[in-house]
Amino acid sequence: MRTLIIMAAFLSSIGRLFGGDDKPAYELAEIYTDMRQQVLELDAEKIGELKDKPIWAVLMETGYPEAAVTLVAVADGAASLYFSR
């Protein structure tokens, strides 16, 4: 879990480094931030199928001028695509 959060923070920093740190022209929807936070706080102990897997989930984010998009794939077979607007 800690590795996932560290990677997310690192990739976010790289994005700001190359893309500037301008705030987006849009506001994030509450459901988007809630769903994204659930993945970032994923606990393998609560999902039995994940206990023995070295990687629990993959999260990829892409920022556009009009919205942010988050793609999530979880080791239990779940996949989701979140839009910030």
Give a quick rundown of the structure:
With 85 residues, the protein is an alpha+beta fold. The chain has one domain. It has helices spanning 2-19, 30-40; strands spanning 57-63, 68-74, 79-83.
Overall body shape: elongated
Low-confidence stretches: none
User: What's the gyration radius in Å?
Assistant: 14 Å
Largest sheet data: 3 strands, antiparallel
Helix content: 25-40%
Strand order of the largest sheet: 1-2-3
DSSP, total strands:
3
Mean pLDDT comes to 76
Overall structural domain count:
1
Number of helices: 2
SSE map:
Blueprint: H1 2-19, H2 30-40, E1 57-63, E2 68-74, E3 79-83
Antiparallel strand pairs: 1-2, 2-3
Overview of the molecule:
The chain has a 3-stranded antiparallel beta sheet, with helices on one face. 34% of the residues lie in helices and 22% in strands. It has 85 residues and is α+β, with helices and mostly antiparallel strands. The protein has one domain.
Structural descriptors:
85 residues; alpha+beta; 3-stranded antiparallel beta sheet; 2 helices; 3 strands; 34% helix; elongated
